[in-house]
């Protein structure tokens, strides 16, 4: 018997990063969508790398809160 897999819709990295930074919070679903968007790409553009860094720094410095 196969384990159930959760399929998340595909959203652009830019859209997800901007949403997270604008709301200054990240939910578990946001995290899964963001990671899915990042891992589905063969390579990130310089702009996408910059957005990932901004989200990471926001989390690290407490500007973005982790919520459920």
Provide an overview of this structure.
- This protein is mainly alpha-helical and 68 residues long.
- It has one domain (13-66).
- It is globular.
- A two-stranded parallel ribbon has the order 1-2.
- 56% of the residues lie in helices and 6% in strands.
- It has helices at 13-23, 28-39, 46-60, and strands at residues 25-26, 65-66.
- Helix 1 packs antiparallel against helix 2 and helix 1 (13-23) runs parallel beside helix 3.
Task: Outline the secondary-structure elements.
Blueprint: H1 13-23, E1 25-26, H2 28-39, H3 46-60, E2 65-66
Parallel strand pairs: 1-2
Helix pairs in contact: 1-2, 1-3
Order of helices and strands: HEHHE
Instruction: Give the DSSP E fraction (strand runs of 2 or more residues).
Output: 5-15%
Number of strands: 2
Weakly predicted, low-confidence segments: none
Tell me the number of structural domains. Answer: 1
Query: What does the overall shape look like?
Result: globular
Secondary structure class reads: mainly alpha
The average pLDDT value, as a whole number, equals: 90
Terminal CA distance reads 30 Å
Main sheet strand line-up: 1-2
**Mind summarizing the main beta sheet?**
2 strands, parallel
Q: Roughly how many Å is the radius of gyration?
A: 13 Å
Query: What is the helix fraction of residues, given as a range?
Result: 55-70%
Number of helices: 3
């Amino acid at each position: 018997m196969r384990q159930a897999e959760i399929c998340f819709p595909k959203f652009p990295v830019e859209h997800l990063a901007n949403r997270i930074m604008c709301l200054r919070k990240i939910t578990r679903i946001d995290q899964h969508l963001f990671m899915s968007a990042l891992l589905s790409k063969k390579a990130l553009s310089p702009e996408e790398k910059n957005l990932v860094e901004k989200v990471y720094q926001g989390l690290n410095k407490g500007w973005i809160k982790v919520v459920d």
